[in-house]
Amino acid sequence: MAKVIMVQGTMSNAGKSLLVAGLCRIFKQDGYRVAPFKSQNMALNSFITREGLEMGRAQVMQAEAAGITPMVCMNPILLKPTNHTGSQVIVNGEVLRNMSAKEYFAYKKELIPEIKKAFRKLEEFADIIVIEGAGSPAEINLKQDDIVNMGMARMVDAPVLLVGDIDRGGVFAQLMGTLMLLAKEEKERVKGLIINKFRGDKSILDPGIKMLEEKGKVPVIGVVPYMELALEDEDSLTERFNKKPGGLIDIVVIRYPRISNFTDFNIFEQIPEVTVRYVTSVRELGHPDLIFLPGSKNTMGDLKWMRQNGLEAAIKKLAEDIPVFGICGGYQMLGCRIDDPHAMEEGGCIRGMELLPVATVLQKKKKRCQVEGVIDELDGIFSGISRCPFKGYEIHMGQTVYHEACDVSEDIYSSRIGNNVVFSANNKNVYGSYIHGLFDQSNIAHGIVQALANKKGIKIEDGIFENYQIFKEKQYDKLAETLRKYLDMEVIYEILGEAYLE
């Protein structure tokens, strides 16, 4: 039997994901076999395992921190929102079906056997399992048949650490209010409180901490400072969307309503001369050096959104002068049309941006696979990344075919595009690919930034393109070092029932 500890939060974005990752790293450093687990994740950032199964990227990040290969049993249920009231439900890495929120709420208890089965699989090799909750355990309207917070803790008899976010204010009310709304049995599971994202002198908090402990009857086991880390975060409440121009190289990512897998562009944020901005309007767009169209959970809807707010027209005009690169759904948008005969998104067909000579038909079955190879010969500004090796994964519902004239006819549907990167022969600035993680290879990111710098006639400092995986490993170590300093790890090991390692 693995030892278990669970991290729950007073709200979304309290810092649960990073704290779980940090604890996984600490336990790994201390010689334990450790694995992360989240029974149900709602996210549009997803990953494909070696077996071709889909899981949330937060658990992939935590698995990296733990030093183990990501497995779908770490995240048996993934909800990918398709609109404001419904999601695609993915169970054990495979699509079950789309459900409304009301339908899923009534159905989710049927998934408890799958959650238990996934957890038992982790127990086969892990000494410690660190579980992440979702949102808040005090959402009283959602507590019935809960499978991700206290319901999950009860399933596996897990002690709980409760985390509050002081950076957003009201942390004492967050923590105390949550404890007050828990049932007696649930409150007894809470063994420690953590105040997260603190800026300033901790002594200022001491009177509040004393009162919190007296009223809540639960010890505060750490005040964790606000950390500047370059690690992946969940996709809804992220601060990276607020950056302004300032770098020598200005890269824009279009932030449509159903943006997915924006982690594709994280590597560019690690280059000092580069600013990566996420924009939602023509006013914010400006005249960047490169525009990325990212993945989308509703490609047709997000293309209509760009068409209605003027971004499509602005991007098409800019494409005459600067490169535009679409990934997955963004790649589909750049083509001449998107057909949805099975109503997987919105049904019918829609004209594309007509910047790439391709057409897409949305299929019933999702393609999920890891891929590797070398980039084909490219023309245009990014010809320098031709023949660069890559590793990544595909995850899409569309079948995309080449059609040079952008005049779709039935005969083209028989041939599937084999290129890993497609470019426009007529417009040397436009590129597209289905491959997520394409840029994580430092030589590819380096080549793209160098090409942009050459076009502007500026010099990029040599030696800044560190291997991205090495860079992330250093970030995990930095996270663990900070948590060791500000959390009472001896108490945490006592909660686990393990002897503290000196």
Automatic annotation (TrEMBL):
Keywords: Cobalamin biosynthesis, Glutamine amidotransferase. Residues 250-443 form the CobB/CobQ-like glutamine amidotransferase domain. InterPro entries: Class_I_gatase-like, CobQ/CobB/MinD/ParA_Nub-bd_dom, CobQ_GATase1, CobQ_N, CobQ_synth, GATase_3, P-loop_NTPase. Transmembrane segments: none annotated. It holds the Pfam family CbiA. It comes from the Bacteria. The active site is at C328, H436. Residues 5-228 form the CobQ/CobB/MinD/ParA nucleotide binding domain. Pathway: Cofactor biosynthesis; adenosylcobalamin biosynthesis. One of its GO terms (biological process) is cobalamin biosynthetic process. GO terms for molecular function: ABC-type vitamin B12 transporter activity; catalytic activity. PANTHER family: COBYRIC ACID SYNTHASE (PTHR21343:SF1), DETHIOBIOTIN SYNTHETASE (PTHR21343). Belongs to the CobB/CobQ family. CobQ subfamily. Catalyzes amidations at positions B, D, E, and G on adenosylcobyrinic A,C-diamide. NH(2) groups are provided by glutamine, and one molecule of ATP is hydrogenolyzed for each amidation. This is Cobyric acid synthase.
